[in-house]
Amino acid sequence: MDKKTISTLLLGMFSMLCFAQSPSMTFSAFETQHVRVQTPGLFDGINKFVIHLDSIPSSDYCFPLPGGKVISPYGGKRHHAGTDIKTRANDTVRAVFSGVVRMAKPYSGYGNVVVIRHPNGLESVYSHNSKNLVKSGDKVRAGQALGLAGRTGRATTEHVHFEFRVNGQAFNSNLIINYDDNTLHHGDLVCSKSGNGVTIKRK
Ligand SMILES: [Zn+2]
Q1: CATH for 60
Q2: Is there a contact between 111 and 154 (Cβ–Cβ < 8 Å)?
Q3: Distance, CA 172 to ligand 1 centroid (Å)?
Q4: Structural domains in the chain (count)
Q5: What does the pLDDT read at residue 196?
Q6: Residues near 183 by Cβ (< 8 Å), separated by ≥ 6?
């Protein structure tokens, strides 16, 4: 290989690892009506991307339910797709990062749910709200009110069922949020395509 080929290859690898994908921020009807959808544009020309948690400014992060406490973690025997955060009825549910509301409607067991697509490639899900305060297409800032906490859908107590997703696939939000003190973790999160799914790992 000549020098030019090598530098082109290196540049390709570099961009694969470092440059953010460009998730679409306009939504098809299907995308406004379902929680689990693939993100158009997310893996165009790349098979992995990295989210640098340290490069997220503190002004672009808000714990989704300030003052809330985790009552049920991700996973376990019932394959829980989210993290349940306990609150009082009608506490304010807030956007974890800035983004655009993809979906805001009642959706089977989720009850009133809000899904936000973030420019960094993640989506966040806030479910069981007594009321949604945003609609599909709304731009939201981190910390902006999305809804009031409730127990709509399949819920036995007032709480927020919170999820992070990549390309429609839910993963453990404790890879991003440290639930000991509700702050962001440090370091990098590598999101790789694998078969029909996505593997999300801390680097
Ligand atoms: Zn839940």
Answers
A1: 2.70.70.10
A2: yes
A3: 12
A4: 1
A5: 87
A6: 177
Gap from CA of 110 to ligand 1 centroid (Å): 9
Alpha carbon of 105 to ligand 1 centroid (Å): 17
Closest to 86 measured CA to CA, from 101, 105, 106, 66: 66
Q: How far away, in angstroms, is 189 Cα from ligand 1 center?
A: 23
Domain extent at residue 130: 3-202
Residues 162-183 have pLDDT tens digits of 999 999 999 999 999 999 999 9
What does pTM read for this prediction?
A: 0.90
Distance 174 CA to ligand 1 centre (A): 14
C-alpha 176 – ligand 1 centre gap (Å)? 17
Span 96-111, mean pLDDT? Answer: 98
Q: How far is the CA of 51 from the centre of ligand 1 (A)?
A: 25
Q: Lowest-confidence range among 8-22, 38-52, 123-137? A: 8-22
CB atoms within 10 A of CB 126: 29
CA of 84 to the centre of ligand 1 (A): 5
Give the side-chain half-sphere CA count within 13 A for 128.
24
